[in-house]
Design brief:
It contains three helices and eight strands; from the N terminus they run E-H-E-H-E-E-E-H-E-E-E. The protein is an alpha/beta fold. It has two domains: 65 residues, 2,3-Dihydroxybiphenyl 1,2-Dioxygenase, domain 1 (Roll), CATH 3.10.180.10; 63 residues, 2,3-Dihydroxybiphenyl 1,2-Dioxygenase, domain 1, CATH 3.10.180. The mean pLDDT is 90. This is Methylmalonyl-CoA epimerase. Pfam families: Glyoxalase (PF00903). GO terms for molecular function: metal ion binding; methylmalonyl-CoA epimerase activity.
């Protein structure tokens, strides 16, 4: 089926709701080595309606990666509630950072005090895959518990134009 609607082949950003904007800015800047491009505030009834809310006030920052932006959002109105998702729960999502060297990425995590969920693995035949051997992955969480992943992709996990 041909894609007749333009624009659904690119992602612009992922939004991550956090408890404390300043703390999360420090985390994501340290993790990515990239500074946020701006910090601002948005809200009011018009914005709230786009999200099914009556009113909203959101403090936010934008972080521009090479191929995706991260919107870091602290909801002031209504106050955010803590959610916790494991990767196997329906509607859980995660953000995956692509790296060239999984070991260097693990060192970076250690430098900023992040413990991964487990040691990284490199996909092998016994993992049940038909392809993608040599791809390395590990999972970790941000300070608010957001599921994050690191991948050093091979085979079909590697994007064609990268």
């Amino acid at each position: 089926m041909e894609n007749t609607i333009k624009g659904f082949t690119r992602a612009n950003h992922v939004g991550i709701t956090v408890k404390n904007l300043e703390k999360s800015i420090a985390f994501y800047e340290a993790l990515t080595g990239t500074k946020v491009s701006n910090i601002d505030e948005i809200g009011g009834p018009r914005m709230a309606k786009t999200q099914g809310l009556n009113d909203t006030k959101i403090k936010y920052a934008n972080l521009h990666l090479d191929n995706l932006n991260i919107d870091i959002l602290e909801y002031v109105i209504p106050e955010s509630e803590q959610a916790s998702y494991s990767n196997n729960q329906i509607s859980a999502m995660h953000l995956c950072f692509e790296v060239d060297d999984i070991n260097a990425a693990m060192e970076r995590l250690k430098e900023i005090g992040i413990e991964p969920e487990g040691e990284p693995i490199t996909f092998q035949e016994e993992d049940g895959l038909q392809s993608g051997f040599g791809t390395a992955v590990t999972y970790f969480r941000d300070p608010d518990g957001t599921n994050l992943e690191i991948i050093a992709p091979q085979g079909p996990f590697k994007r064609k134009n990268h």
